[in-house]
Amino acid sequence: MSTKIKDKILNTITYFASGISVFVLGAVLVFLFSKGFSTLNWDLIVNNYWSQNLLGTVDSVGGDYTISEEVDGIYSARWGIALKDNVNSQKEKVIEVTYIHPESPLKTMLSSSAGDNNKEITLEDGYTIQKIDIVTSDGIPTFTGKIMSQDAATVISNIDSAQKITSIYYKTTGGGIRSSLITTLYLIVISLVIALPIGVCSAIYLHEYASKSKLNKLIRQGIETLTGVPSIVYGLMGVTVLFPVTQLFGATTTSILLGGLTMSIILLPTIMKSTEEALIVVPQSLRDGSLSLGATKSQTIFKVVLPCAVNGILTGVLLSIGRVIGESAALIYTMGTFINDSPKLLSQGTTLSLMIWSFMSGEQPNFELASAISIIILVIVLVLNFIVKAIAKKFTKNFA
Amino acid sequence: MKKLLSLLLAGLLIAGCSSTPTNNENGGETAKPNTSASVINVYTRDGSSGTREAFEGAIGLEELTQNAIEVSSNGDMATKVGNDTAGIGYVSLSTDFEANNIKALSFEGVVPTVETVLDGTYTMQRPFAFVTRAAGDFGSDEKEQLVAAFIDFLQNSTEGMAIVESAHGIVDMTKGTPWAELAKNHPIVTQDNSAITLVTAGSTSVSKTLQAALEAFQPMAGNFQISMNQTGSGDGYKRVLGDEKDGANAADIGFASRNFKTEEDVTNAMTTGVYCIDAVVAVVNKANSLTNVTGQNLNDIFAGTVTSFTDVK
């Protein structure tokens, strides 16, 4: 076969391969956006996941709150409240408040939860009604609402015909991903703070100081093998080996700190490898020049060689961030699957990918919400990439 | 040799190209319905579904036919079977059969209703069971009392039962007592409990009913904190009484969407029981004349050995 044909075949293969990658990437993006874009909105990002559950004492017989304007949903003039059947982002049926009269007895109430000390609570548009305790016209105490699988029309007719309302149990708007967003950033910071110095320093040792002995070769081989270990194994190791370490800091359950420690171990090989690659390409002449000017070896390494390698190290950081954001298996064991609205260092939490896992593992997989979160993840990765690239540009010293 | 290799590679790439993206785009639909009316179209749920697990367990299915069409949710199943005169599938009992144009099949001669599920004659069902830590092992007295109060609310109160039912669990509402009466036995609920966190573990299938009940109980019992770590039935026992009860994943109440096994010894628990039942119903299109199936029938149909409704006896 002639060289020409050979070249053609090889060319075709490369075109083909890149075409496929572009096609798959496009297909994934189209899938994510078609499924998730409609769910995506600002409320999803800033709201808490858990709604607050509030129980208010009403003890009122109602009044006359007739309004002139049209409101969405079914309006009860006696109670000054309009309700509508709706479906929330978790695909559950809810009875939503669409309008509440400012003077309605249901607008401002005293909380009847123990420990709240009769705090004032309010009912706002968008909140969902769970249960309304009423006394029927025959004087029998009973309740109505979503927990009896009733719809908005039934609830309105029940409270309209009741003698009085004694208390009301409602939920604030929830279903947001704010906490997971924070936890994700938290985890990135913790794992990088631990893994970056250790990884960079050990790479410097292996490349600059270590002699070419059999032992060092073995160590390097071992580190490279670590990249291939499934992350779930790291997770199991984390919960058995590292948990006692976090206990010293006062952790009682799996925690973000434990997740961060585990992630930093997963990241070590990546950071070491990319740092070492960066050190290799720093020209030997720079080292020789520095040494011949009388600088010590450590001065040469930390003041001449390392600044040249910043670009490569930051590439390692980028890869690490991607790894942290995308990880889920190891974190199920080390951070738990509970979506925590106030994530702290020693409390449980979920990252965005773990949140996707929990939405998809339930009885009714929620593709729409999972895709919406994926879009947000893509945006975060993109933004972080730009930031890291900007930092790299600022710090890179071009000696060559 | 090299040329051969590169050609082979190109061939592989083409093959890969044709199969990868299609999987992506239709959300995991595995087969297309057959249009000929005489051939049964088998509908099944996605692999993570608890309903599927319960159904396949009840009929003893070992391997699902490759022609099964996968749907993504209970509602999706009802709609698809309702639109396919040759379709058969399974949904949970709380589904609106009439509105979806589907018909619930009797199983082993028993009509699926709330009553037959509760008295146990309808056997395609599974319990949602719970188990707590051993008495005195909760870390604090308040927590122990709170757990006891919650279990009482979940299992015995009218409100708790109504909440579980609205989240599609099957309960015997006639046995409920108003919470106002039960609360008298639990003085703990009148205190500020915001420093206490109730941790649950176990089955993911119970999530909906459990979350609804916990959230409703929260304002009634001094705003305690909730931490739900549902990972699977196997972890329910393990994390409250088994190996992991003092580990990082320890929990106060464990759940299983099945009865606890003999090797899961729950006698040490402060309390254990079943708080609701989940029933699975085999459904066909309303136009289908089939009214009753046996476990063997369903096994044959879902394994693909019987492919026509006329062969179902």
From TrEMBL, chain A:
Domain of life: Bacteria
Compartments (UniProt record): Cell membrane
Entry keyword Transmembrane: yes
Classification via Gene3D superfamilies: MetI-like
Transmembrane segments: 12-33, 185-206, 226-243, 249-268, 304-325, 369-388
Single GO biological process annotation from the record: phosphate ion transmembrane transport
PROSITE patterns the record matches: ABC_TM1
GO cellular component assignments: plasma membrane
Matching CDD domains: TM_PBP2
Record flagged with keyword Magnesium: no
Protein name: Phosphate transport system permease protein PstA
Source organism of this protein record: Anaerorhabdus furcosa
UniProtKB/TrEMBL annotation, chain B:
Role according to the record: Part of the ABC transporter complex PstSACB involved in phosphate import.
Keyword Transport: yes
Membrane topology reported for the UniProt record: Lipid-anchor
PROSITE patterns in the record: PROKAR_LIPOPROTEIN
Statement: the UniProt record of this protein carries the keyword Lyase: no
Domain spans labelled PBP: 194-308
Signal peptide: 1-24
Localization in the cell: Cell membrane
Naturally occurring in which organism (per UniProt): Anaerorhabdus furcosa
Keywords: Lipoprotein, Palmitate, Phosphate transport, Signal, Transport
InterPro entries: PBP_domain, Phosphate_ABC_transporter
Complexes and interactors: The complex is composed of two ATP-binding proteins (PstB), two transmembrane proteins (PstC and PstA) and a solute-binding protein (PstS).
Record-stated family: Belongs to the PstS family.
Gene Ontology BP term (one): phosphate ion transport
Name of protein: Phosphate transport system substrate-binding protein
One Gene Ontology cellular component annotation held by this UniProt entry: plasma membrane
Primary localization class, coarse: membrane
Residues annotated as transmembrane: none
